[in-house]
Amino acid sequence: MMKRGVIAKSLLLWILSMVALPLFAGEKEQAVELLAAAQKAEKRAATVDGVWRDVGKYIANAEKALEAGDYKKSMELAQIAKEQSELGFQQMVSQQELKIPSYYK
Amino acid sequence: MPILNKMITTLSGVMLATALTAVEATTPEEDREQFVRYNTERFPNVPAEEFVNGAYAIDPIGRENWEAIEEFPPYEPFIEDGEAMWNTPFANGKGYSDCFPKGPAIAADYPRWDREKGMVVTLPLAVNQCRQAHGEKPLKYKKGSINNILSYIAYESRGEVTRVEIPADDPRALAAYEAGKKFYFTRRGQLNFSCANCHLQNSGNQVRSEILSPPLGHTTHWPVYRAKWGTVGTLHRRFSGCNENIRAKALKAQGEQYRNLEYFLTYLNNGQVLNGPGARK
């Protein structure tokens, strides 16, 4: 009985922390953080020449939205830039070894 | 966003399905022979000397328009401006002929391996090295007046034969060639395409409103007047455009990657006759 109560309490705390804490953390701080993460991902993709075409635009527009106080939009754009950069990085790393495709015979 | 993600997943699924074979090391000359064989077997009706005309060697309708355009070549004023550039002394009294004593018919000497610098030197790079050696500002590598001097040089070099050398006694030259080859077969961008996906696997097929030309002949006719550009542009401008079409960020014109790519692609075109400047859609 006692044990179940403890579990229930910690579960409640855990749910609270997952749902509520991010709401308390400033939206602005989150947007700043995500933008920095996107920029870092772009730099990393650039080290292997794996940057996709529109990443720069997404980041520039995320910066503008951040300045304009539209944190939601800024985060949306930064998220796309970050994901695309991660994919671009993986794309290049996965092809480090030259393979001649079978159609070219 | 969801549409985009879906597209990426679908695309990468399709791409992964393409079989890849491990590389056995091949020599550049073996690569070139294979390249010529692939092109000629794929286009058995194209006469050998026609490949330098790109898509117009395989597309009769496009060819008709192109022949009409070639009667009053849109690149002609650029050749004239380039000739004037060649003959106008730099501020220090010297000129292009001090750097290129052979005269302007030098396109077939490039790209070439520069042993001292340990890098591939292309013609546009050599033009700017000349300018800078004589205290002139370098020209931009994609648009603008570099295309004038290049048009003049291309015109004067017509009829010369592509003959890129990879000096056997400098392994860095072969490494540069191999880097260019790697680039050609590497998938890039959001659409996950390599140069080879379009220009080898799909040559002869239609992409949007264009028919993909056989890549044999791709390096013979630069710079090119493109109707789409409304002016004459360099080979590296074309590389940039092809990279951007597959939603990759273009690399730097005359940066190491594109110079090595040019070295590789031009080597594969050894034996092809120079016919620049060209005109394309």
- Main β-sheet description of chain B: 3 strands, mixed
CATH domain topology of the largest domain in chain B: Cytochrome Bc1 Complex, Chain D, domain 2
> Which of globular, elongated, flat, extended, rod-shaped describes the shape of chain A?
flat
Q: Helical proportion of chain A?
A: over 70%
Structural class of chain B: mainly alpha
**Helix count of chain B, per DSSP?**
11
Average pLDDT of chain B, rounded to a whole number, is 93
Strand content of chain B: 5-15%
Radius of gyration of chain B, in Å, reads: 19 Å
Assembly annotation: heterodimer
**Range of helix content of chain B:** 40-55%
First-last Cα distance of chain A: 72 Å
Mean pLDDT of chain A: 89
Query: Spans of chain A of 5+ residues with little confidence (pLDDT < 50)?
Result: none
N-to-C CA distance of chain B: 33 Å
- Overall number of strands of chain B: 8
The arrangement of helices and strands of chain A along the chain is: HHHHE
Number of helical stretches of at least 4 residues of chain A: 4
What this model shows, in words?
The complex is a heterodimer of chains A (105) and B (281). With 105 residues, chain A is mostly helical. Chain A has a domain at 48-96. Helices cover 75% and strands 3% of the residues of chain A. Chain A contains four helices and one strand; from the N terminus they run H-H-H-H-E. Chain A has helices at residues 2-24, 27-46, 55-67, 71-93, and one strand spanning 99-101. The longest helix of chain A has 23 residues, at 2-24. The mean pLDDT of chain A is 89. With 281 residues, chain B is mainly alpha-helical. Chain B folds into two domains: 3-72 and 164-280, Cytochrome Bc1 Complex, Chain D, domain 2; 76-156, Cytochrome Bc1 Complex, Chain D, domain 2 (Orthogonal Bundle). Helices cover 45% and strands 8% of the residues of chain B. Chain B is built from eleven helices and eight strands. Chain B has helices at 2-17, 28-42, 60-71, 76-87, 96-99, 123-133, 146-156, 171-185, 195-201, 235-245, 256-268, and strands at residues 20-22, 112-114, 119-121, 206-207, 210-211, 224-226, 231-233, 278-280. In chain B, the strands form three sheets. Chain B has a three-stranded mixed sheet with strand order 7-6-8. A two-stranded antiparallel ribbon of chain B has the order 2-3. Chain B is globular, with a radius of gyration of 19 Å. Mean pLDDT of chain B is 93; it is low at 1-11 and 13-17.
